[in-house]
């Protein structure tokens, strides 16, 4: 081992010079800046690049915003109204107005009912979509061969379950879209309508238009159904009724147990979450015995 650590004078001088060289190179590496101070930047290219980045950020921000689609202001719910920026009082005014079976047919009327500010109205009014007959209300000419507004007797009226689209279009306010919508809704049920009241379920028909229809049409051949005994009905049978879902059916049965049976179908109005404005349609399917 001793021979590995014994060096001659020349070898020791070589090792010493090597160590000095290594230390010198390390000092040069750490203390000398080899970077050029003159860095050329194309300011025009950099500006274009930054502008593209900013535009991409704006596009991404715009896409992330919630979109508002056209809607009928008559059907604004609590959640929809809050998302539009309406206050609770403004939403309540609208709901109370609608509960009275009234309809809003213009932007001005919407503001009169809800009392929203002009600034908010200007934001949401472009998305209002009123029914066809409201949009075309400026047309003053009466359709050729249209029916008068005078109500006919039962014998003179046409059977609503056999009415054609062409016959319905003779009613003022009924166009191609409405007539086809009425017939499509009627054909959802084998046998058609049970009663004229079911016209309320046709989307877009206002009480005024329904009145014009029933002046000249009525259900003369109602669809035959077996009514459900409300005091014996099961959850499964109740959900077959229009406007009754599982939650409402559960509430109806729970209220029935508390009351020890219903004495009148009007008592259904006391059931939690019951659609009071649809009770006349629901009663078509129910009985007390």
What do you see in this structure?
- By secondary structure, the chain is an all-alpha fold.
- Among the domains are: 73-130, no CATH class; 158-218, DNA polymerase, domain 1 (Orthogonal Bundle); 228-287, DNA polymerase, domain 1 (Orthogonal Bundle), CATH 1.10.150.
- 45% of the residues lie in helices and 3% in strands.
- The chain is built from 13 helices and 4 strands.
- The protein has helices spanning 9-31, 43-64, 78-84, 88-99, 107-114, 118-124, 132-135, 165-168, 176-186, 207-216, 235-238, 246-259, 279-282; strands at 158-159, 217-218, 228-229, 286-287.
- The strands form 2 sheets. The chain has a two-stranded parallel sheet. A two-stranded parallel sheet has the order 3-4.
- The longest helix has 23 residues, at 9-31.
- Mean pLDDT is 86; it is low at 140-144.
Write a compact overview of the structure shown.
By secondary structure, this protein is mainly alpha-helical. It is 45% helix and 3% strand.
Q: According to CATH, what is the topology of one domain? A: DNA polymerase, domain 1
* N-end to C-end Cα span: 116 Å
Strand arrangement within the widest β-sheet reads 1-2
Arithmetic mean of pLDDT: 86
Low-pLDDT stretches: 140-144
Largest sheet: 2 strands, parallel
Q: Architecture of one domain, CATH level 2?
A: Orthogonal Bundle
Q: Indicate the structural class.
A: mainly alpha
CATH class category of one domain: Mainly Alpha
Assigned CATH superfamily of one domain = Photosystem II 12 kDa extrinsic protein
Helix percent reads 40-55%
Task: Name the helix and strand elements from N-terminus to C-terminus, one letter apiece.
Answer: HHHHHHHEHHHEEHHHE
Gyration radius, in Å: 39 Å
Which strand-content bin applies to the residues?
under 5%
- Total strand count, please? 4
Shape: elongated
What is the tally of helical segments?
13
């Amino acid at each position: 081992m001793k021979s590995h650590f014994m060096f001659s004078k020349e070898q020791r001088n070589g090792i010493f010079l090597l160590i000095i060289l290594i230390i010198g190179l390390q000092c040069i590496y750490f203390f000398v800046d080899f970077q050029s101070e003159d860095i050329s930047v194309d300011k025009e290219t950099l500006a274009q690049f930054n502008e593209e980045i900013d535009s991409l950020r704006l596009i991404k921000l715009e896409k992330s915003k919630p979109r508002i689609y056209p809607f009928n202001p008559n059907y604004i719910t609590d959640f929809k109204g809050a998302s539009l920026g309406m206050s609770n009082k403004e939403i309540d005014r609208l709901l109370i107005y609608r509960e009275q079976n009234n309809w809003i047919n213009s932007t001005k009327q919407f503001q009169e009912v809800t009392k929203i500010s002009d600034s908010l109205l200007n934001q949401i009014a472009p998305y209002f979509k009123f029914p066809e007959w409201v949009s075309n209300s400026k047309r003053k000419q009466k359709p050729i061969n249209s029916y008068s507004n005078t109500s006919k007797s039962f014998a003179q009226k046409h059977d609503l379950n056999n009415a054609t689209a062409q016959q319905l279009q003779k009613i003022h306010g009924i166009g191609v879209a409405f007539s086809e919508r009425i017939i499509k809704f009627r054909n959802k049920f084998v046998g058609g309508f049970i009663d004229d009241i079911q016209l309320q379920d046709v989307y877009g028909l206002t009480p005024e238009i329904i009145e014009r229809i029933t002046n000249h049409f009525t259900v003369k051949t109602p669809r035959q159904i077996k009514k459900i005994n409300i005091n014996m009905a099961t959850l499964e049978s109740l959900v077959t009724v229009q406007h009754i879902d599982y939650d409402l059916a559960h509430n109806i049965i729970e209220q029935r147990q508390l009351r020890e049976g219903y004495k009148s179908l009007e008592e259904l109005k006391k059931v939690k979450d019951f659609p009071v404005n649809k009770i006349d349609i629901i009663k078509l399917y129910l009985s007390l015995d």
